[in-house]
């Protein structure tokens, strides 16, 4: 009996050590114990390492190339665009389809992939696998369903280490399994504008069309592993191109939500070389 109890305790300890690398409540309780993992800001506007215009430009640049790389599947959307905009996408030389990570490398100068983390018990991590990510680069996005502070997330949050809390209390459920996966697919299928998809579901698979959409697997830094990326909230503006919204890995839980779509990007704090794992820090409001 005692051996069984010890085995159960050991199994729980292993699971918890993996869980805590992303579990927001655990982070909140331990911020003061490990200040190296914490980035303090006085208000939400100060969480920005790069300006919103730069985030907009970087995402539009990559998403444009992803669309050009997939012209065979874009005919229905493209035919509804003005001729001038349609020409900007179809005037390409390469007729072969590259992997999304190749498109990312060719466009941004680096690419990232999920691999086993260098941290013990952390499970999956995210690495720069080609090129170098300069300081201030958008290196990843945190995908998932967006919940406002008054929206229900209790059942989705049970044993879920992928719930990200924004400064204003908005939550992003980045779990790609179980009920969270079902909720995201349902909300994404609901939100369409004619033939235009307004969000991406491929991050729920092992082969995301948007190679940035793996931010939920970026592990928190520690005393041994310093942060090289930080979270930055980004509200998608109305002028974001309709035909490129199909690559946004986020969707609002409530259909009648009139607020801008919340995204969270991860920005490099320094130059990150090929082979390095990404480690994030968490921010909090100080008064």
Give the strand tally: 14
Q: Order of SSEs, N→C?
A: HHEHHHHEEEEHEEHEEEEEEE
The chain-level structural class is alpha/beta
Low-confidence stretches: 16-38
Beta-strand fraction estimate? 15-25%
In round numbers, the mean pLDDT is 85
- What would you report as the Rg, rounded to the nearest angstrom? 19 Å
* Number of helical stretches of at least 4 residues: 8
Sheet having the most strands: 6 strands, mixed
What are the salient characteristics of this protein?
287 residues, alpha/beta, 6-stranded mixed sheet, 4-stranded mixed sheet, 8 helices, 14 strands, 22% strand, globular
Task: Describe the protein's architecture and organization.
The structure is a single chain. By secondary structure, this protein is an alpha/beta fold. It is built from eight helices and 14 strands. The strands form four sheets. Strands 1, 4, 10, 11, 13 and 14 form a six-stranded mixed beta sheet that branches. It has a four-stranded mixed beta sheet with strand order 6-7-5-12, with helices on one face. Strands 2-3 form a two-stranded antiparallel sheet. A hairpin with a 2-residue loop joins strand 8 and strand 9. About 8% of the residues have low confidence.
Summarize the entry for a quick read.
About 30% of the residues lie in helices and about 20% in strands.
């Amino acid at each position: 009996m005692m051996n069984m109890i010890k085995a159960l305790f050991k199994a729980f300890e292993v699971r918890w050590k993996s869980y805590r690398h992303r579990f927001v409540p655990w982070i909140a309780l331990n911020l003061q114990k490990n200040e190296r993992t914490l980035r303090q800001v006085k208000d939400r506007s100060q969480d920005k390492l790069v300006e919103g215009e730069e985030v907009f430009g970087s995402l539009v640049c990559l998403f444009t190339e992803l669309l050009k790389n997939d012209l065979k599947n874009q005919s229905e959307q493209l035919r509804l665009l003005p001729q001038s905009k349609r020409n900007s996408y179809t005037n390409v030389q390469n007729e072969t389809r590259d992997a999304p990570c190749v498109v990312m490398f060719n466009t941004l100068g680096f690419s990232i992939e999920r691999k086993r983390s260098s941290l013990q018990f952390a499970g999956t991590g995210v690495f720069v696998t080609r090129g170098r990510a300069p300081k201030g680069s958008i290196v990843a996005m945190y995908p998932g369903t967006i919940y406002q502070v008054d929206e229900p997330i209790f059942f989705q949050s049970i044993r879920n280490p992928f719930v990200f809390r924004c400064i204003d209390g908005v939550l992003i459920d980045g779990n790609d399994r179980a009920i969270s996966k079902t909720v995201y697919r349902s909300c994404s299928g609901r939100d369409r504008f004619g033939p235009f998809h307004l969000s991406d579901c491929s991050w729920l698979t092992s082969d995301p069309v948007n190679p940035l959409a793996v931010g939920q697997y970026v592990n928190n830094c520690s005393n041994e592993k310093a942060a090289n990326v930080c979270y930055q909230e980004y509200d998608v503006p109305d002028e974001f191109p309709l035909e490129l919204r199909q690559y946004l890995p986020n969707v609002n839980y409530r259909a009648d939500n009139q607020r801008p779509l919340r995204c969270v990007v991860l920005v490099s704090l320094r130059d990150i070389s090929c082979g390095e794992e990404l480690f994030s820090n968490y921010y909090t409001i100080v008064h």
